[in-house]
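Protein folding task:
====================
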Amino acid sequence: MSLSAGEVEEYRRTFNEFDKDGDGRITKEELKKVLAVVNPDISDINVDSIISAVDNNNDGCLDFNEFLNLVKPPVSLDDQKKEILSAFRYDQI
């Protein structure tokens, strides 16, 4: 399931709100401040785990693509099947 341009823009706005210094990356400290609003007791270990789950370049921060991987809804198996099957439909050629 691909995101629409509007969805990407909405996620970009959210990313920019998290990225307080505007350097294009969400640091551990920036993420912790946002998450602490929901869970004031969030630990550094929890924040590290969240970041490491999607930190593809291992810089300890989240760039926009990594942020998308964290927040976008997962693709369901049904959506994956539909996408694969649509690739083999001859009537679309």
About this structure: The chain has one domain: 5-92.
